[in-house]
Amino acid sequence: MYAHRAIQRIAQQTPRALLFSTSSAQAPQTVEIQKRAFPKFSITASGLSSLIPRSQQLAKALTLGKFTVTQPELTRLASQFLAANEHASMEEWRTQALGVFHGDVREITRAASLFAKLSPNKSLSYALYKVAAEEGHANAAYHYAVLLGTGEMRMEGGRGVGGQIIKDLAKIGHPPGLMLLAETRLARNDAAGAYAMLEQAAKGGVAAAAFQLGKLMRDGRVGEPDQARGWFEEAARLGSPEGLFMAGTVLAGEEKFGEALDYFERAAALGNVEAQYNVGLYYLQGTGCEKNPELAVEYWTMAAAERFPVAMLNLAKLLMEGKEVARDRRRARRLLEAAVEASDKDGFIKDQALALMERMGKGSDSRCNVM
């Protein structure tokens, strides 16, 4: 049975950079997809303007992406899409789309991705993925299957169709397809069944697969725990912030703090808030580096901006105490209020923040211990 709930969870929770990051050296793949009727798309009254990006934005994207199709051609195709959707003549539009792109399914897929990223209404993007998928383009088939699996295409029986496409992609060794099928196995607590697919996907350049293998090995669910670091490092090599963070965590556990800091800094630069917090702590304490409280404040400020409660709490403590950095009671109070709001209802961080706010009210905030 197609685990559409797992697909929806993955689509919503897995960072796109992890899920879709694959090696640029990966050879093009094709897959046979049965052609099916287009669904009736729901398009707002704004019509054409909701389907394609603003003129300047589209022109820039086409130039940067080195598209051969022109902006007027895409605008005309979008207008034809509106008319075809209204008059139930989508099969004719399929032929028009293939003609505009001269049958180049790679460029159709790239255009679909562009519209998915830049357009308010995703209907045209979905339709283009469908055209390219049914012409055999494996990456388009993957995106099309995800849309079917999450129910976004509103096609009758779409989830079952999407599941079969993912299975077909996995059979030909398509890395993201393998990753997604492995995730459905993991959703059923079948780590052993997911293992080989994750390994193949990771070797195909999917960062999320390498990261997942590291987690499974670290937790003793597959393989050997001492192999976890290697997979985290592979995920890091493929650009995964989470992989960088976990590789740093393993090194920190081995007391290789200087090496750990390097991984944490790289993860922090990619927006991982836990890494930002750790880097701040290392610089505050001089762990694996020279002590630098000002730099610690910079990193904790980044994490606090992402509403990471422990960063907000400890940054507030530094600002209240005024020993390592300049004292700033007003900013400290704002951070504590934000920490209370961002913490669990009865969480430890919330209790700590409330206690510190009470101390501030009594004027006894000169000594605060950073966690």
UniProtKB/TrEMBL annotation:
Keyword set, alphabetical order: Repeat
Keyword Membrane carried by entry: no
InterPro entries per the UniProt record, alphabetical: Chitin_Synth_Reg, Sel1-like, TPR-like_helical_dom_sf
Domain of life of the native organism: Eukaryota
Protein's UniProt keywords contain rRNA-binding: no
PANTHER family for the chain: CHITIN SYNTHASE REGULATORY FACTOR 4, PROTEIN SKT5-RELATED
Protein name: HCP-like protein
Organism expressing this protein natively: Linderina pennispora
